[in-house]
Amino acid sequence: MRNSAIFLTPLLGSIVLASCSSTNDAPVVVCGPDDVATTNWDVVATTDYEASWYYASVDPIPTTAFVTDAVGVEGAVVDALTGDSAASTAAGAVGVYFPNGCATATANGNVTTFVLNDCTGPLGLVGATGTFTATFDVTDGGVQVQLAGSKIAANGGTINLATSGTLTSSNGQKTLQASTQTNGTGPDGNSAAHNGMYTLVWPTGDGCATINGTLTGVGSGLYSGTSTQITNYVTCTNKCPQSGTATSSFNGGSVTLTFDGSSNAQCSASNGTSASIPLRCQ
Predict the structure, then answer these.
(1) Would you say 130 and 151 are in contact if contact means Cβ atoms under 8 Å apart?
(2) CA-wise closest residue to 258 among 52, 8, 31, 47
(3) Cβ atoms of 164 and 143 closer than 8 Å
(4) What are the residues whose beta carbons fall under 8 Å from the beta carbon of 215, sequence distance 6 or more?
């Protein structure tokens, strides 16, 4: 998924509004105070990229593997899942999630190391370059996975990946509950540092997932401490964001981005400004 370039444009007086631009970088609209609108998108985009790396790491693990040392749904005995076998499964499937030979993955014990080179990947990931690790540990009925990596490029941003999650599965649907402290610079050039929790839910092998979460500690300066609420944000491989909202709330107002599957996000702010923001989707 690729997004619009967004710039800060000074207006009359002391108020600074965020100017959203088209794919040719020509300023066309205004929405939101200072850099809240752009930071909102940078945080959402960073979370989307993080989710894509989770997805590539854990989606290959078969749902039957969650039934350890037991009889499977068709009567076959299921081998116990281990951290080592989860890591091997993730490494073996790297070409499915990052095609065209752009990525390699190796398993060493319960750790899979992914090396990306300008990769287009799952859930709208574009231009990913760098190295990250996925560390797997199996619990009763679930899998714990920790992702880590420094200065991973993704669609113009640079991300320091620091997050851990617990994967569960039921009736062919997987749920990842993640705790994230990822930071770095988002694709629009703002700090994407945040803390918080979110859930990633998807049908196995479907290619789409839904994110819901609350992220805090966002923003700087006058708007430091901004929180971002991501609600029913549906992200898919090779598509624009299908639906959902992302609202950044700060002392004195809020900015909401709404996604509808088109190549534009609708921006509305509590100061009365609104805009249709072009997205550079896949």
Answers:
(1) yes
(2) 31
(3) no
(4) 43, 47, 180, 194, 195, 196, 198, 227, 228, 230
Instruction: Report which of 246, 248, 249, 282 is spatially closest to residue 265, judged by C-alpha positions.
Output: 246
What integer pLDDT is reported at residue 174 of this predicted model? 92
Q: How far apart are CA 32 and CA 19, in angstroms?
A: 8
Question: Residue 9, CB half-sphere, CA atoms under 13 Å: how many?
Answer: 18
Angle at 203 between CA 118 and CA 54, to 5 degrees: 35
Give tens-digit pLDDT for 52-89: 999 999 999 876 666 544 444 433 334 578 899 999 99
Element (H, E) at 202: strand 195-203
Mean pLDDT to the nearest integer, 138-157: 90
Digit-coded pLDDT (tens) for 2-27: 343 333 222 222 222 333 333 333 33
Q: Name the one residue in this structure whose structure tokens are 């080592």.
A: 84
CB-based contacts of 153, cutoff 8 Å, min separation 6 = 127, 128, 129, 130, 159
Give the phi and the psi of residue 45 in degrees, each rounded to 5.
Answer: -60, -45
What value does the mean pLDDT take over residues 200-228? Answer: 85
Question: What pairs with residue 210 in β-bridges?
Answer: 201, 234
Q: What whole-number distance in Å separates Cα of residue 131 and Cα of residue 117? A: 9
* Dist. CA 81–CA 84, nearest whole Å: 8
Determine how β-strand 16-21 pairs with β-strand 6-10. antiparallel
Residues in the chain: 282
- What gap in Å lies between CA 60 and CA 272, rounded to an integer? 45
Residue entry with tokens 């100017």:
19
